[in-house]
Amino acid sequence: MKKKFVAKSKKTHKKKYKIIFFFLVLFSSFLVTIKSLSKLALPFQNENLIRFLLENNNPFVTKTKSNYSYFHQLMTKLITLDLSEPLSIINSNYKGLTKNITYLSKEEKTTRVSKEEPPSIYIYNTHDTEEYTPTSFAEYSVMPTVKLADYVLKEELEKKGYNVLIEETTISSVRSTMGLNYAGSYQASRVLLEAAKKTNPSLEYFIDLHRDSISKDKTTLVYNDKTYAKILFLIGLENPNYQENLEFTTLISNKLNEKIPGLSKGIYKKQGAGVNGIYNQDFSPRTILIELGGPENTIDEVYETLLILSEVLSEVISSDQN
Length: 322
Known about the structure:
Elements: H1 2-37, H2 47-57, H3 70-79, H4 86-94, E1 121-124, H5 146-159, E2 164-166, H6 171-178, H7 185-199, E3 205-210, H8 216-219, E4 220-223, E5 226-229, E6 231-236, H9 242-259, E7 264-270, E8 287-292, H10 299-321
Parallel strand pairs: 1-2, 1-3, 3-8, 6-7
Antiparallel strand pairs: 4-5, 6-8
Helix pairs in contact: 2-4, 5-10, 6-7, 9-10
């Protein structure tokens, strides 16, 4: 009887050791995988884009080390990355790229526009869930969407002295309130347009940023060794005063192609059965609809285009106001 008990006890201990060994192997594999992922690099090295992604989409940036979980403290030591310090992540991914960069926290950053000045540009997305292709671990599981493009454009325009308002309310929540399906998205964004203008009478320019749905060969341009996401403008011909919107949009399209030939694919005019035909452009002669890139474009390619687009918008708006 005693021998049987000893044998059973030994088997139980062996089973425990096997379970412990299994979890140790599993955890080691997890660490190796995380370490490998942390070394992945994007094909293009836009230091400003990476800083933007990390500063604006990293919840750890706003935490102090005393608020870290035990798991986060452990991961920081094991993989030599500190999620609260973007430079440690960029240095790991970008091999010396940040040698001469000084990281500023959100509290330390100074804005180039006066917060006392009312916004004059409103950016919104009638189809706010349209996504781009994710690129690497550097984006920290943030799925790049047209909403992310909004914030990049806002930042670039604010550098040029404009105050920009981005619509934060989701279109789906407005549609749900109004009992609309996806086809009613423009009705929902019209509600947001009117509310934004009522709250901010200073708004003059309205940008509805979309992402096209066609293949990458039709939405991508390589120029001087840089890759850009192409732009297509859309004008609704069922707007009684579409000519004013068309003239303003044509200026922007032409200036884009002056800077980067072929960056704008021009203006697509729509009307008739099965389409919206107006796209809220009757709201203002300065309402434009932009299709930026496609589902296979990366946020890096979109970023390159936004830099040029912000320059052109600044030039056209400045000229328009004089």
